[in-house]
Structure formats: C-alpha cells, structure tokens
Amino acid sequence: MTVPGRRSSTFSRLLRHGFTDPSAAERLLDSPQLAAVTNDPVLLDALGATADPDLALLGLVRIVEAQENDAGRRELLDTLIAAKPLRDRLLGVLGASDALGDHLARHPLDWQALVTYEAQDLHPGVAEFEHGLAEADDPVSLRIAYRRCLLSIAARDVCGTTDVTQAAAELADLATATLRAALSLAQAAAPEDAEMCRLAVIAMGKCGGHELNYVSDVDVIFVGEPAEGTDPADEDKAMRAATRLAAHLMRICSETTVEGSIWPVDANLRPEGRNGPLVRTLSSHLAYYQRWAKTWEFQALLKARAVAGDTALGEEYVATLAPLVWQVAERENFVTDVQKMRRRVVENIPAAEIERELKLGPGGLRDVEFAVQMLQLVHGKVDTSLRSGTTLDALKALAAGGYVGRVDAVQFDEAYRFLRSMEHRIQLFRLRRTHLVPEDEADLRRIGRSLGLRTDPVRELNREWKRHAGVVRRLHEKLFYRPLLDAVAQLAPGESRLSPVAARERLVALGYADPAAALRHLEALASGVSRKAAIQRTLLPVLLGWFADSADPDAGLLNFRKVSDALGKTPWYLRLLRDEGAAAENLARVLSAGRLAPDLLLRAPEAVALLGNGSGGGLVSRTRAHLEQEILSAVGRAGKGEAAVTAARGVRRRELFRTAAIDIVSSYGTEETPAYADQGALVDLVGGAISDLTAATIAGTLRAVVRDGWGETLPTRFTVIGMGRFGGHEMGYGSDADVLFVHEPREGVGDEEAARAANTVVSEMRRLLQIPSADPPLLIDADLRPEGKSGPLVRTLKSYEAYYRRWSLGWESQALLRAEVVAGDEELGRRFLDLADPLRYPAEGLGEDAVREIRRLKARMETERMPRGADPTLHTKLGRGGLSDVEWTVQLTQLRHGWAEPGLRTTRTREALAAACAAELISGEDAATLDEAWVLATRVRNAVMLVRGRAGDTFPSDGRELAAVGRYLGYGPGHVGDMLDDYRRTTRRARAVVDELFYGTH
Question: Mind listing the pLDDT tens digit for each residue in 26-43?
C-alpha cells in the first residue's frame, strides 16, 4: 500500500523509463490483461527502450484485449517475455506508430508476423512480399496483407535491424509486389481486356528509385501495346482495354475502404500530364519525348523502372528512352531549367510551413536529390557507372569518379540519411503522407527518441535537424562547382578529380561557351597554397553558380579574374567578399550582366568596396547635394583645370558604377532580396541619379575652369540650363547632357569681354569633359539653343529674350518644357526660366494652328529620322508607342493646359502624366498604358547600354546580348521571344492611345 502523499516505487520507475504519464501507465500495468507479466522487469525495460513508452503500453493492452481467448493472450504474453526479437519488434512498432497499433488491434493475430527471425525475414525482396500478398483476392484483403507486410518492415526499421536505405528499398519492393497484385485483381475482373493488350507499369520517383517512404504517392507511367496476334487495326480497342485495366489498378490501390487505402497511384508524370492519355504505346511515348518533353521530364526518367505487367514491354520502354535521358544535359539552359524548377518548388511552399518543410524546403531532401540528379545528367552520358535511380548509390558513384569531393559526399550522405530517417518516423506515426516537422513537443520527443536521442530528445532533435539541413544548404550549390576547382588544383594523395573532359562537360552544362578558357581562369585564381588561393577556393563555388545564373557566365568569370588580379594584393578585397555575403553576390551579378559596369569597375577596381554592406559600402544613391559637395571639394584640392576636372570625372565614374550596380542588383534580385517590383521607381532612381551626377560634374567643371582663368569671379554672370532628358531628370547611361548656356555681363564689363569670357568657359568645359582618359567622357550638347548649330553657343539673357520674342518656333517652346537650372548662377537661371514660362505654358493654351504644326512635325520625324532597316515595332525612341510617342503626347498636353494646371508645370514626363490624369485630362487607363510603355522603353535603353557598353535604341541582334537584356528585364533563359512579344504588345497599346490623344483620331 502506498502511503498518502508519497509516490509508489512503480511510479518512480516509470518516470525513469521514459513514461510521460506514469499514473496512466501504472493503471494499465495493473490491468487484468497484463496481470501475468506486470512485475516482470523485462517488460518495463523493453517499454522504456521504445520511442513512446506510454503509446507502446497502451497498444500492447489493446492487442492483448483483442485476442480471441485466454489461450491466445497467454501465447502472446509468454512469447513476448521469452523471445527478445519479438519483444523488441512488437513494442518498437507500438511505440512508434499509432496507426500500426490500430491495425494490430483490428487484426490481433498479425503479431505473429513478427515472430520469425530468419535470414530471409531480415532482408525480404519482391518475391517474399509477393508471397505475403498472395492470398489477397479483393481490395480489402489486399490492404490487410499490405499492412501485415508493412508491419514487418517497420519492426526491422525501428529496431535498427535495417538502416534507412534498406527500409526504403523494402518499401519500394513491397510497392512493386502490391502493384503486381493490384494488376492481377484488375485483370481477373476484366479477362477480356487482359487478353486484348499488353500492359507494363513503370515505377517513377521514389518507388522507381528504390527509396520509397512509408506513405507516399507511388508515381507510375503506363505503357500499352496490342496483344500478340491482334489485328493492327484494333490498336485503339487494345489501348482502351489497357486504359481500363490501368484505371482499375489505380482505384484498387487508392480508394478508401474499411481498411483505409494503400497509397495513391499518381500517373501525372506521363506525357502531357493529366491532360494526356493514361496509357500510350511505346512509339507514342518515344515520339513525345523526342519532340515535346521538357527538361524536368527527362530528369524524372532517371528513376524509371519496370515493376509490373508485361516485363518485356517494360524493359523495352526503359531501354528505348534511356539514351534520350543522357542527352538532356546538352540542351540549352539545362542547368538553369533544373535550378528554376527547384526555386519554383520552394516559392510554392506556404510561408507558414517553409521552416518546417523537411522535403521541399531549403536544406531539405529535395536539395540533395536535385543536386545529385543534375550531376548524373551532366556526366552520365559518358560515365555509365552514374546511372542509378537511387540517390545515395548515385552519390557514392559520383564521389568514386571524382565528380563530387569525397568529404562533401560523406557529409551529404549523412545529412540525407538523417533527414530521411526523420521523414520516416514522422510518417510512420499515423501512416499519413506529410513532410512537415510537427510542432507538438510530444511528437518531437517521440521522433527524437526513435532516432536514439534520449538525453533531451526535443532539443537534440532540433539541433541535429538544423545542423544537417545547414550542411545540405551549404553543399547543395557547392557540390556542383567545387570539383571544377579540384580539376585545376593540387589535391591530397588518393583524392579523385574531374577529368578535363568532365570539367568541360560541366561548364558547358552551366552555360559557359568557352570551357577551356574558364578552366584557365579557375586555375589562375585557385591554384597554389597561398592564403589568397585558399580564400578563392572558398568563394568560387558560390560565385560560379551566380555567374551561371546570368546570360554570360564566361564574361562574369573573366571579369572576376581581372578584378582579382588588380586587387589581389590589397588586404581588404578577398576579406570583403568572404565576410560580407552581399558583396560577393552583388559582384557576381554586376560582373556578368554586361560590359558597362565591369568596364567602369576595372578602370578603378577599388570601387568594389561599394558592393558591400559595411561602413564603406552600401548600394544607395547619393543626393545631388552630397555629390556636388564631394566634386567641388575634389576640384578645390586639385591643381590646374585639367587635373581638377580629372578628379571630378573620377568621382563621376565611381558614381556611375554605383548607379549601374544598384540597377543590376535591383533588376536581378539576390538570394535574400527579390528583384525590384516597381519598375517605374527603378527607372526614376536611375534617371535621377545620373542626372544629379551630371549636374554635379558640370558644376565642378565650371568651378575649375573659372578658377583657372579668372580666379574666383568670372567677368560675366553665367548659368547652365539643363534641357531634354537632363532637365527632365531622365538621363540614361549613354545620354549626352543637353544644355543651354546663358550669361549676363557684370556691372562695368563690356559686352565683348563678357561674351569672350563666356565662350571661353563653354569651349574649355566641353574640351575638359571629353579628354580621352580612363574615365567615360561627358558630351555636352547645346543643339537645342536658338538657331540650333548655326547660332552662338552662349547668349546673354537679353539676347534670348529678343530671339524668343521675335523668332521662336513651336518646337523651341516644346523643348523649353524640360528647361531647369543645373549649374552656375541660380538667380540668373531663375530669370531665364521666368522668361521661358510664357513660351512653354502659353496663356489660354495653344491655338489649333500650333497644334497642327506640332503634329506635322512629329509625323515628319517618324518618317525621316527612323534609321533605315530598323524595326519600328522595336525601336525604343522613334518606334511605335516608344519614348517619342509618349513624350510628345505628354508635352502637347502641357503646352495646351499647363497655364491652367500647376501640376503640369514639371520637367519630368511621368510626373506630368500623373498630373494630367489627376486633372482628368487623360483617363486613368490611358495614363497607365502610356506610363507602362515609357518605363519599359526606358528600361530597354538602359539594358542595352549596360549589356553592350554603348548606347542603342533597339534590341541587340546578338543572341547572348539579347538574352542578357531579357535577364535584366526579368525574363528567364529561353524567354527572349516572350520579351519581344510583350514589348510589342505594350507599345502597340500605347500607340493606340497616342493616336487618339496626340493625333486626335478616334
């Protein structure tokens, strides 16, 4: 008798043996069903060794209760105590699987399936499982027999008799036997159909790969042919018969009965997926894969294995399609397609589940499988030893051949085994298909204990899971690229390496056009025993992946070598890339996106520091005030005019690189940050940054020229007016600076002296900004001045006033819509703008004659200025719905209504368009159409300059350059056609709006 207030000794023993509810366990142990063994220490020790002692004890009581009579109960309990193999197996299953406990309670004699302990029982194959299913003659009895076989697999698994790969192979063999039994039932139910056709069942996925889960869809493909001797004309009948048999097989396995279901049979990997016929002939399969199949469909065929039905037909199917599988790596964008599919899988995981997703999440099982399969497809064409459908067998072969580093392979193997074991334990509990790690502590405790983590199961399980997932995440990309370095580096004795042929194969698969040159770059960067080479070997596997994600991996790697050669001896360069993850990825994006940014960087490689996220970096645009302050300070420190302007141009080069880097990284996105969603905001950022930088550079140059020639004060007041895209804050990378120069003689200075000084300033500014040097030139274009190229470069304010009063043309008023003070005397500049306002915002708007003249001029420009041979649907400036169309439409609206609508008095196209919409002068739909086209055309122009390194108004003709423009615009590999179609569609809609609003057509 227990003293009140004190725990019984049994209670304490139960706690020590891992029971979480000792009171309930004590009651169960004292129940009549277990009276014969209650005090036997063997039972308590065996229960304590299970994953969940409470669950195991409850399951045991239920099975004992379910025995038909006392003799059955005595036999069970006597055997349980006497036979350790049965005790470990039965209690192990009961402690790990509530669902199998339910099965044993419904079928109380099935415990006897766990008694046998012979060699064939330890490692059964398909034949043994077929024997176990042989007596099943309907779907219900098939389910019971299936669970009985599953019980023996689970028992060996939880007891450690078999490891996770053996258990997975046994589950696949059981599935094979089950598919055969289900097909036999279907054939028996429809003997006429069976006689008319040959039907083969091809296992795919984990079943085909001999690595099935406890509960998983069994992926299959069906192949059918008319039976031998059948009239060829009856092929359709035969295929309909085969389809009925296949559909019946699927129902037998998938439908829920009183004994539940076995597992869903999924035939969606077949050609055309669920939209295609369930059964095809072999020739139909072959035709599809030769003409239409996507990369992932060949990847899926890696695991194809004939398992049921007509053996000869199934093996012929596998043999016929295998050669196509090993050619898929030669496809353009092969690696990108595989990686894109992997990313799509991750993106489709609900945000609330991604951290618990064991299979599909980052660092999950699918990362291992994808990495291994990609390597198999690249190298399996030449090396037949890699052609295994089983993940870990393939990984072992890859390591043996030097395609994967041995240490990496061991770590990958260990991580995969642990994650698969976790997945098995999670599914085994309720025999439900899930890959989510549970959140309930009791579930985590049971899983942890089942994996041998007994001290603190929950904490240890989470720690081991995160550790292995981290290993997979780290190795997932590295696995593909690391051996490329080993191929050109000194290896430890006994290590295998990629052959030169294999290395070239892998580089070609990654998209490198010149693999031999790429290997030379890798050798130059990573060979040797220096600390620099060691850091490069750490960085390059990841960088190679980022280069491969671009349209020009070769250029990315070459540029990286050039930057590394230039900065290799500086102590901070490699440390920056190694320690600041953003810097390395940003550099990879910038170096492989085109010519402009690398050219700017290579002229002063220390600008790579801008790509980091530390105190010296940060991809953030600087304000005009900050830029002007820095440039004026640099000019002040420099000597004569040429040296001062060289300093200003150096700042401009660095800031152009910063802007280009922001643009590229924002357009491509990074692993941490998606691509910039608001394309219009990105266009405004780039246009504003380049325009501010140009203004600051001109201000600095003006200061240098004046100081060099006159000291602190010029004999005439002088201002620079920005025009065109410069005044509109819409400059691109290749834009000239459109300006007007205005001066006004100071008091006491003669007109001739003032004009001479002003002209000297202008000519010297233009000269200094165009001197050939390492810095890109800044071309100053004053062609929008009165009288154009025939007129003087610089005028007094009075001269402008006289000219505009007497001679001004309509196009000049239109040009003044963009006028803005950018440098020099601000007060003089404001007076010029006051002079311009009546011209650009005429009182009461434009008369009809003026409107007709603007329309006539625009129509003439469209016909006369379009380059010969250019496609008008793809010319960003003068083409249909391009920049000119949108800008002239907006500017006509400003000229007509700017006097009455203050919002229209802006130099910026998008601001004016938004103001016109707000004033209801343009509908919201039309404004959005025009804005979309203008933003897209501007982005294309920026992309062309970034990619080619020189300005252009139309899409490049070179395929690789065109693909790079597509990547910048957000189009993946192989979607250049979609990009051009989208551009034409967007600009066609814009042109329809222009025709209505500008030309007045309805």
Answer: 999 998 889 888 888 899
